[in-house]
Protein: Probable membrane transporter protein
Amino acid sequence: MELTADVIFLLVSVAFLAGAIDSIAGGGGLLTVPALLAAGVPPTLALGTNKLQGTFGTATAAITFLLKGRVDFRRFLIPCLMALTGSACGALVLTRLDPAFLSGLIPVLLIAMAIYYALKPDLGDEDREVRARPALLVAVSLAIGFYDGFFGPGTGSFLTTALIALFGFGTVNAIAHTKLLNFCSNLASLIVLLAAGKVLIPLGLAMAAASMLGGYAGAHSTMRFGTKAVRPLLIIMCVALTIKLLWDPTNPITKLMATLFS
Structure:
C-alpha cells in the first residue's frame, strides 16, 4: 500500500510523541496504532508496524537508563529471557487466533491500575524493601511478555505497576526496568511478525527513528522530574486507553452494557 507524504509526516510526528510518552508512562501504542489505522493501514499490518517502531523506542529508553546506572541487569537477565519467550509465544498465537476476546478484560485491568495510582499515597522515587520471591518476577515477566506479543496495549503500565506493587521499586527505577523488559518482549514479537510478513518496514523504520528521539527525551525527563511527571501520566494513559477500548461497539463490555440499558 502507498501513503502520501503528508500522512507519513503525521505518522512520524505521532511516533515521536508516542516514544516520549511510552518512555515515561507506557501506552505509546495508544497513539500510534489508532494513527496507523486512521491512515488506512490494515489492522494486522498496523500492529506489526507499530511493533517495529516501538522496539526502537523502547531500546533507546532502555539504553539511556542502563547508561545512567538505573538498571540491575544481573537481576533481570532471566526475567528478560522469560519476556522474550513469552512474547514470541504470544505473537505466534496472534498470527493464528483472533485476540478480540481480550478486549473485555483489559479495560477492567486498566481502571484498576488507574485507581491504584490515584489512591496510593506513598509512590515515590525511593525503592522499598519487599520480600517477593525471584520466581514471581520470572512468572510476571513471562505472562506480561506473552500479553505483549499477543496484543500489547498497556504493557509498559502493567510492568511498571507490577514492579512497584509487588517488588517495591521506586517509580523511576520501575520504569527503567520496565523499558528493559518491554524491549525484550517487543524484539521477540517483532521477529515473529516480520517472519509472518505483518510489518510495513519502510514506514516502520521512519516511525522508529522518531520514536527513538522521543524515547530519549522522555527517559531524560523521567530522571529529571521523577514522579511529578510520571504519576499523572500513568493515570492518564490507563484511563485514556480504557475509554478508547470501550468506545468500540464490538467490545464485550460495551455490548453487555448496551444490552442491559436497551
Observations:
- The CA atoms of residues 107 and 242 lie 5 Å apart.
- Residues 43-67 form the longest helix (25 residues).
- The two ends are 41 Å apart (CA to CA).
